[in-house]
Design a protein that fits this description.
The structure is a homodimer. Chain A has helices spanning about 10-25, 30-40, 55-80, 85-100, 100-110, 130-140, 150-170, 175-195. The first copy, chain A, is an all-alpha fold. The first copy, chain A, folds into two domains: about 1-50, Homeodomain-like (Arc Repressor Mutant, subunit A); about 60-195, Tetracycline Repressor, domain 2 (Orthogonal Bundle), CATH 1.10.357.10. The first copy, chain A, binds a DNA duplex through loops.
Chain lengths: ~200, ~200
DNA sequence: ACCTGAACACCGTTCAAGT
DNA sequence: ACCTGAACACCGTTCAAGT
């Protein structure tokens, strides 16, 4: 017990510990000293793996973006890459925020300096936003979604689900009933809002 | 210069100073010591007027909610309390966030403990959310907006403009062109999304 | 009443030193 | 290479003391 810790993957353990602390006590309660203490290492051990506290938060955000991307992609493809898949993506986005509020707050809460928030890249297939743009283009080709610029439509769709997600995790809605109800209504109103007008 | 400062309204000056610091250097750069120093008072003078740092932030948020409510009410009434006024409210909301990002982040950034964020009160005429609910009810009576529960519709509308506002102030959009474009598209798609279906 | 200065318990971060 | 302990410069907050 007195020899040095040999974590198989100390950086990974530190990220997990950080998420756990944020989950339980809030972002303001996250301290590097606390992370080290709970992991049984010195309070400066973290600097061997991260440049500073912000770098640790960036790792949390990066993990969140990976998880979000995976779930959105899964929803879109297993939903049949059509109208149903699109609705599933919307629900999956909000679900992700509700299931992983700590990650979500770090990703979008503005506490990061030099954020890793992937800037909208319509051609990127590896990021969540790219998946959204591709989905919208597919729906436009199918004549389901109106012919606005896909990039702008994607920003709008993002804004809608992001807004619902923030309300859901900020305690404005009484979970879980209100969250489910608003999610359902939001996905439906979103669809009506961007659907193609009836063909002349 | 050595006698005690006699501010006409020290609490107000402190709130203004806090907003200015957040505006220039970010929320993380706000320190009570900095506020005191810039105002020429001791670093503990603040405790005569606020219970702690969180209380100062609550005052910033409260000021923001007052300003937002005023601008939304103005947009709704001077827009004729109809479809045009509703669109004006949406634009005013996003404009407020863009014009006062410091206030907006404190109001909704989750940095407050025991937030003063007014919980949705459909009957409250003094808060922004109440104004929104009343506006939606008026539009429903006019047959312009679909007959969903006003409370739920209001949450949806709030989510949409809140989402756009967050994207706008978080640097995702290139100001000002992208912000104007997305705002215009969002208000239009929002309208289509909640409008009443054509009468049979 | 209002403000001050010293003090306390906490941070993030750096760095020389240990294995 | 990886980790440690002491140290530094900063916080928020408390409190006895001044006017």
């Amino acid at each position: 017990m007195k020899v040095s810790y040999h974590h198989g993957d100390l950086p990974r353990a530190m990220v997990r510990q950080a998420v756990q602390i944020i989950q339980r006590d809030g972002l303001h309660a996250l301290t590097l000293r606390g992370v080290g203490e709970q992991l049984g290492v010195s309070r400066t051990a973290l600097y061997r793996h991260f440049t500073d506290k912000n770098d640790l938060l960036k790792a949390v955000a990066a993990e969140g973006f990976r998880m979000l991307q995976a779930e959105l992609h899964e929803a879109w493809t297993s939903g049949g890459e059509g109208r149903l898949g699109f609705a599933a993506m919307g629900r999956a986005y909000i679900q992700f925020a509700v299931n992983h509020p700590s990650h979500y707050r770090v990703m979008f809460g503005g506490s990061l300096r030099g954020s890793d928030m992937p800037t909208p890249d319509p051609d990127g297939t590896g990021d969540a936003f790219g998946t959204l743009v591709h989905a919208l283009e597919a729906l436009q080709r199918a004549g389901v979604v109106r012919d606005d610029p896909p990039m702008q439509l994607a920003l709008y769709v993002w804004a809608v689900v992001h807004g619902v997600a923030m309300l859901a995790i900020d305690g404005v809605l009484k979970p879980p009933a209100d969250i489910v109800a608003l999610t359902t209504l939001a996905i439906e109103r979103l669809r009506t809002g961007i659907e193609a007008p009836p063909a002349g």
